[in-house]
Request: fold
Amino acid sequence: MKRPPARGPVQIGSSYTAQQEVAWYRWEFVRRNPKFCADYNEFVGSFGAWLKLKGAWGSFGTPGANWSKSDKKYFRTQIEPVLDELCRKWRVFDLYPPALDMEEVFEGHHRELFLPTWLPADERENSRSIRDIKDMGFMGKGRMTKMYENLLLMQFDLNSPMKDLLEHAESTLRHARRSYKEEMGKQGVRLQTGRRRFEDYDLHLEVWDLKQQGKPNTEIATLVFPKYSSESALSRVRDHLKAANKLISGRYREIS
Reply:
């Protein structure tokens, strides 16, 4: 994996928005999670042979072009429920292989230029997950405010005075944010409150990958932190390994 620039948007074939950059970093951590890799391998072990024979499920989770009715039924009843469960569990757009580097996507190795981790609904209008949200009535008509995980749907009557609209928005957002924060707290997830420091994530990933290559901490310290004293550099290596392990183990959800 090539490190993205320490400053500015990550450039991988095209300019990333800030939200896309968030998704990129989430993917870089989650694909290193051994439990995610195990889930992926178990899925491939269960259905890989069938999918290899019948072909991939296509864009937005739609059946392959040449699938028979029985193929489509098998996919919908046997494969897609497992696929959906894993996508929700890991908060990914689809079950991409852990070895997938985002540069491969933008170099054209995949037909669809989709980031592996979830983005807001308006950027994934036809995704399997967004279809589920629509089925729950989130795009219905009338005055309503609903929450689904980290998504909040608010509808306004534009005939109302602006002052009333702003007061309603502020009150609703404050309440929703508090409820979401409490729910995430129960799951051990802390919401991002300060400025994103993507350069820290870069170092987390670099140090972690060097460690996985079998390099000792002393060598990593020399490679990554050559300007620091040996003691200070070793301390930084340990800190970055600890931070990377936390993110890989599940706290990648806190990247926002």
Notes: The first helix runs from residue 18 to 30. Residues 198-254 form one domain.
